[in-house]
Amino acid sequence: MKVTVIGSGNMGSSFVKQLSRAGHQVKLTAVDADKAAALASQYPGVSAVPAALAAADSDVVIVATGYGDAVAALKSLGDLSGKVVIDITNPLTADYMGLSLGHSTSAAEEIAKAIPEASVVKAFNTVFAQVLGQGADFGDGRKVTVFYAGDSDSGKQTVKALAESLGFDTVDAGGLKNARYLEPLGGLNVYFGYGAGHGTAIAPTWMRQA
User: Fold this and answer.
1) Residue 198: count of CB within 10 angstroms of its CB
2) Buried b / exposed e across 82-113, counting CB within 10 Å, b at 16+?
């Protein structure tokens, strides 16, 4: 696939690494153009480009920024009509130990309202950057699970295919409103990983019955 990644932080860097490894064509854009260029130069099939040129021919856009920056970052790309946008954000409070919104909406739903021309799918928000960077395999036969939620069946199938191409197991979590469940799960993950000191390997997974 042709994939645009917005952001060169921990999650953006991990996505670039795994997408390149899986053979996808990647365009990377970030506020710090020099950092983006340095990151892109490390991997085949990755190019760093200005925001206005980042999404023109892409199949998927991954917004790997904080929730507060996501809408502005997406709008900086220009026309997103027909694009599948993967929202990985969690609306965390300043201390990372709570959520700034929930119950009656979610970060994903608010982003979808802001860019109605795109198909927004919530995914990867329960996967730590360190886990994404090291790969999907736990090393004991299990794989990290990516949950995805969205209102477009074709959009969800695209995200499922992308996640599985990176080696992850996938679970369809229903419509986009179910991001209201996935985002607190992401917050719980942060608490377990950092607040409770269990480390990033705590990333949640569900064992399937044969």
Assistant:
1) 12
2) ebbbbbbbbbbeeeeeebeebeeebbbbbbbe
Residue 42 CB neighbours (<10 A): 11
Asked if 169 contacts 144 with a C-beta cutoff of 8 angstroms, the reply is yes
**Phi, psi at residue 190, to the nearest 5°?**
-60, -40
> In terms of CATH architecture, what is 2-196?
3-Layer(aba) Sandwich (3.40)
d(CA 94, CA 203): 21
Task: Say whether pTM exceeds 0.90.
Answer: yes
- The single residue listed with the structure tokens 């899986």 is 22
pLDDT tens by residue, 47-74 = 999 999 999 999 999 999 999 999 999 9
Distance CA 74, CA 176 (A): 18
Hey, how many other C-beta atoms are within 10 angstroms of the C-beta on 157? 15
